Amino acid sequence: MEQTLAQKLLQRATQEEIKEPGQIVQCKVSLVLANDITAPLAIESLARMGAEKVFDKDKIALVCDHFTPNKDIESAEQVKKVREFAVKMNITHYFEGGNVGVEHALLPELGLVGPGDIVVGADSHTCTYGGLGAFATGLGSTDIAAAMALGETWFKVPESILVNISGELDEYVGAKDLILYLIGQIGVDGALYKALEFTGNVVEDMEIEGRMTMANMAIEAGGKVGLFPADAKALAYAKAAGRTGDEEIYPDAGAEYVRRVDIDVTGMSPQVACPHLPENVRPVEELKDVVVDQVVLGSCTNGRISDLRDAARIIKGHKVAKNVRFIVLPATPAIYKQALKEGLLEIFAEADAIIGPPTCGPCLGGHMGILAAGEKCLATTNRNFKGRMGSLESEVYLGSPMVAAATAITGRITHPKEVNSDQ
Amino acid sequence: MQYTGKVHKVGDHIDTDAIIPARFLVTTDPEELGKNCFEGLEAGWIKRVQPGDVIVAGKNFGCGSSREHAPIAILGAGINVVIAHSFARIFYRNGFNMGLVLLEIGDKVEEIKDGDELQIDAVKGEIKNNTTGATIKTAPIPAFMQEILQKGGLINYVRDRLKG
């Protein structure tokens, strides 16, 4: 049978022959991930399973990134529990202090995930690693505990939707706009139980960080995974992150897809998702009357160095609008240091942005940027559910780093070309 | 696995932030989580629910994060069954793992009204509406998931494998 990329990746990890979508297969996992919110439950489940050790201390990553630096006593207690577990189990990849970054930016950078891997994480945005050609998906804490104990998990072989992206991108349009546009087209359950597989000239030309931005939001269309081929670009990224032995992986020609979506990006505007669902997507020009109180640049979707460069290019020489809070959270320590070296943090600081530590923080309404009733925020994050970033009466709009920077300057949702002084 | 309870209807795409907002994820205690269940949908929503009541939802119930706290909060609030048009996949897996009964019935959710009393046989896959007298048949649970349910959940399943 000709295999989709999803089937091919699963086939590499299972002894069973994959014959059709819907089949349930047991797969070996390459890495198992949990964070400061989900690991405590996994640790409790492991104890109830009677598991005295984990399957491989080098193949588990515990990243305390959501409420850190700990926002209150309860979250400090949760991190303490994770730390004590990591010490007891001698877990190699434990991150909490100055080494912690937003998990889905951190693990690829360290080479802990890469092409061909099967990764399960107790975090729904684990699908980010599909940008590198890994079959990576989110599971709940008890499923993660089972994977920590057994080194394997079960998957229902998904049907795949082929997303073919072609044409020529405008200079102000990028990966975030493309994934928002797609979610706008197919809806927040458009890929429910299915794999999204990306192809086309725009995808081939896209750098890995952009691919990870797109794969990250596959879950926002209900998708199990968002997959890009493990091509030469993915292999080069993995090699630079210190990995060896990875190989190229592509879907078979003639593989069967349940649906095909063709997107021509020529002439596309930056896209913004309006409250309260990621599918409420409109071109940025239609939202120029929306006045914001806060702008957030960061998260596992758009907190990488290319995102900071995009935003810095727009905001350089400008000031953040009066009464707007522009919060910049580089996603990892390495990104932070690189941004410092390149002078990006100086640009943000000169613009009167608030520069914070690597943390998920405000994205999920944790801390460092919570919204009051009636406040509006434009964020480069991935979810704009009601109350996601604070009050049930607040509103979140999702957009790209360039739209975020432009919006911070004017205080209303703005097309970056309106403020770019490079012209 | 028989349940009888009053229906509370909710809409499409009820996300995990609506079921249990992230600010409450500083505990793993079911009772504590249960007190704040659906606090992200409407403040105090859960106060209308009696233990044993049933939630009937639209499309894509449980979309969003992977937080297992979501099914735990629902169980902690005394709700044992959620019926939906469809479920988000991570929530679906989590629900089974935690022992929350999930029944997917597609467009037939329209036949159930807020306040109806349902009698549910999860093994037979039958939902009897005591208010209208109608019966809805549900799709069978996948075989592998039945095996996990027969073991009494994923924790027991793994415990048996580790012993074996």
Describe this structure in words.
The complex is a heterodimer of chains A (423) and B (164). Chain A is an alpha/beta fold. Chain A has 2 domains: 21-262, Aconitase, domain 3 (2-Layer Sandwich); 273-418, Aconitase, domain 3. Chain A has helices at 5-11, 39-49, 73-88, 103-109, 141-150, 175-186, 201-205, 208-216, 232-240, 299-302, 305-315, 333-341, 344-350, 401-410; strands at residues 24-28, 31-35, 60-63, 93-95, 118-121, 135-138, 152-156, 160-166, 195-199, 225-227, 259-264, 271-273, 281-283, 294-297, 325-328, 354-355, 376-379, 395-398. In chain A, strands 4-3-2-5-6 form a 5-stranded parallel sheet. In chain A, strands 16-15-14-17-18 form a 5-stranded parallel sheet, with helices on one face. In chain A, α2 (39-49) links the parallel β2 and β3. Chain B has helices at 16-19, 30-35, 69-76, 89-98, 143-150, 154-163; strands at 2-9, 54-57, 81-84, 101-104, 117-121, 126-129, 135-137. Chain B is of the alpha/beta class and 164 residues long. In chain B, α4 (89-98) links the parallel β3 and β4 (101-104). The two termini of chain B are 28 Å apart. Chain B has one domain: Alpha-Beta Barrel (Aconitase, domain 4). A 7-stranded mixed sheet of chain B has the order 4-3-2-1-5-6-7, with helices on one face. The longest helix of chain B is centred in the middle third of the chain and has 10 residues, at 89-98. In chain B, 28% of the residues lie in helices and 20% in strands.
